[in-house]
From TrEMBL:
Gene3D superfamilies: Homeodomain-like (1.10.10.60), Tetracycline Repressor, domain 2 (1.10.357.10). Residues 37-56 bind DNA. SUPFAM superfamilies: Homeodomain-like, Tetracyclin repressor-like, C-terminal domain. It comes from Streptomyces griseicoloratus. Residues 14-74 form the HTH tetR-type domain. Keywords: DNA-binding, Transcription, Transcription regulation. GO terms for molecular function: DNA-binding transcription factor activity; transcription cis-regulatory region binding. The keyword Repeat does not apply. The lineage of its organism: Bacteria, Bacillati, Actinomycetota, Actinomycetes, Kitasatosporales. This is TetR/AcrR family transcriptional regulator. It comes from the Bacteria.
Length: 204
């Protein structure tokens, strides 16, 4: 998860960050997401509610951070090819999006995003920005290797891989397996390659 910077002009306390996320995960396991409250997390973590709300604007955002983005993520794999890199990212997203907690939290977070513009901004500047930075790195390497005719918007790569997986798992409720993940990575590779060629041709 991308850091949100400073709160109240002071550096964030990483120990408090970890304690909030660890406690949230424990309570989700014990009581389930629907019964989780910010008061419970604050009491068990030994922090004030204000400390939580400086970091997260809602219960859903806090729980999403703890269950999905609060985990230590592996560095972006450099497999030597665009398809290999996208497949590695797709597999990482598949594991995270398929987790039971994420299946509960995804719809709750989407509902909050639909009615809370401030949460949308925070979500874009933290969770989504961190994911799109990974795709930007993959695209830059592919351009350097000559696999792509030029740069493409990492947001498009994010949509093709993470967006497709999220729709398949949470909306369509498909039984996504590794074969489907590989097919999605192949389709994303072909799509980004074609898009880069189209952009390059339009600049000539």
């Amino acid at each position: 998860m991308a850091a949100k910077g400073q709160a109240g002009g002071r550096p964030r306390d990483s120990r408090v960050d970890r304690k909030i996320l660890e406690t949230t995960r424990e309570l989700i396991d014990e009581v389930g997401y629907p019964n989780l409250t910010v008061d419970q997390v604050a009491a068990r973590a030994g922090v004030g509610k204000a400390a939580i709300y400086r970091r997260y604007g809602s219960k859903a955002e806090m729980a999403f951070a703890a269950s999905v983005h609060g985990q230590q993520l592996p560095p972006v794999a450099d497999t030597g090819s665009l398809h290999g890199d996208l497949l590695a990212l797709a597999r990482t997203f598949h594991v995270r999006l398929s987790a039971p907690a994420t299946r509960h939290l995804g719809p709750a977070l989407v509902n909050e995003l639909a009615t809370n513009p401030d949460l949308v901004t925070r979500f874009q500047n933290t969770f989504l920005a961190a994911e799109q930075a990974d795709f930007a790195e993959v695209i830059e390497r592919a351009v350097d290797r000559g696999e792509l005719a030029g740069p493409v918007d990492p947001v498009m790569a994010h949509v093709l891989v993470a967006g497709a997986l999220s729709a398949a798992i949470h909306v369509l409720r498909l039984p996504v397996d590794d074969a489907m993940v590989a097919d999605l990575a192949a389709a994303a590779t072909a799509g980004l390659t074609a898009l880069a060629m189209q952009h390059h041709a339009g600049q000539e």
